[in-house]
C-alpha cells in the first residue's frame, strides 16, 4: 500500500468503523442487559471476534499466493497486451502464454519500505493487459519482484521469473 492509501484507510477506520462499532456495541449491550445475558464470558467473545477480524485480513494479505492471482485476468476477455508501452499484441495465444508463465510463480507481498526503487540493474518489463470490459491491469515485472498498478509490491518466492518469454515476443514482432 502506498502512503495515501494507508492514511485514507486509517482515516476511514477512525471516522466510520470505530463509531459504528461503538454504536452497535451500545445496542448489543443494552439488549444483553435487558435480557439478563451479561456476563464476563459473553462480553469477551464479541470483543475477541472484533479484534480477530482485522488481524485475519492483514495476515491474509501478506500470505504467499500465485502470481496469476495477483495479476488476474480472463484470457477470453483480453483485448490486447502491451509490453513496455512499445510492443502491442492482440493475439489470444500470447495472452494464454502470459497467463501460463504467471501461473508458474508464487509471490509474497512486500512492505513499501522493503522495496528498493532502483531497478536500473534489473531486467524487467512493464506489462499492461487491456481487458475488453474493465480497466487495464498494469505490472512492472522483474526477475525477483514486481510492482502492480494498485501500488502493491511483491517478491517472487520461487523465482527468478523467466524473462525469455518477453524477449522472444520482442523478437517475434
Topology:
Blueprint: H1 3-35, H2 40-61, E1 65-66, H3 67-70, E2 78-83, E3 87-89, H4 92-103, E4 106-110, E5 124-131, E6 137-142, E7 145-148, E8 153-156, H5 164-172
Antiparallel strand pairs: 1-4, 2-3, 2-5, 4-8, 5-6, 6-7, 7-8
Brief descriptors of the model:
173 residues; alpha+beta; 5 helices
Account of the 3D structure:
The mean pLDDT is 83. With 173 residues, the protein is an alpha+beta fold. The chain has an 8-stranded antiparallel β-sheet. The relative contact order is 0.13. It is elongated, with a radius of gyration of 22 Å. The protein has helices at 3-35, 40-61, 67-70, 92-103, 164-172; strands at residues 65-66, 78-83, 87-89, 106-110, 124-131, 137-142, 145-148, 153-156. The longest helix is centred in the N-terminal third of the chain and has 33 residues, at 3-35. It is built from 5 helices and 8 strands.
**Number of helical segments?**
5
Distance between the termini: 35 Å
Rg on CA atoms, Å: 22 Å
Shape: elongated
Q: Let me know the number of strands.
A: 8
Runs with pLDDT <50, length 5+? none
Main beta sheet strand tally, sense and closure: 8 strands, antiparallel
- Class by SSE composition: alpha+beta
Offer a quick outline of the entry.
The protein is built from five helices and eight strands, in the order ααβαββαβββββα. With 173 residues, the chain is an alpha+beta fold.
Amino acid at each position: 500500500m502506498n502512503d495515501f492509501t494507508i492514511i485514507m484507510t486509517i482515516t476511514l477506520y477512525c471516522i466510520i468503523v470505530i463509531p459504528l462499532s461503538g454504536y452497535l456495541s451500545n445496542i448489543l449491550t443494552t439488549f444483553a442487559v435487558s435480557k439478563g445475558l451479561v456476563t464476563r464470558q459473553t462480553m469477551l467473545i464479541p470483543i475477541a471476534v472484533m479484534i480477530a477480524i482485522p488481524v485475519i485480513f492483514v495476515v491474509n494479505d501478506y500470505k504467499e499466493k500465485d502470481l496469476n492471482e495477483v495479476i488476474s485476468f480472463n484470457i477470453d476477455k483480453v483485448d490486447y497486451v502491451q509490453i513496455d508501452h512499445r510492443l502491442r499484441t492482440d493475439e489470444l495465444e500470447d495472452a494464454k502464454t502470459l497467463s501460463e508463465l504467471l501461473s508458474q510463480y508464487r509471490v509474497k507481498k512486500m512492505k513499501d519500505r522493503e522495496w528498493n526503487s532502483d531497478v536500473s540493474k534489473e531486467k524487467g518489463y512493464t506489462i499492461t493487459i487491456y481487458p475488453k470490459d474493465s480497466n487495464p491491469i498494469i505490472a512492472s515485472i522483474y526477475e525477483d519482484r514486481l510492482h502492480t498498478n494498485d501500488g502493491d509490491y511483491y517478491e517472487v518466492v520461487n523465482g527468478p521469473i523467466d524473462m525469455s518469454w518477453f524477449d522472444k515476443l520482442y523478437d517475434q514482432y
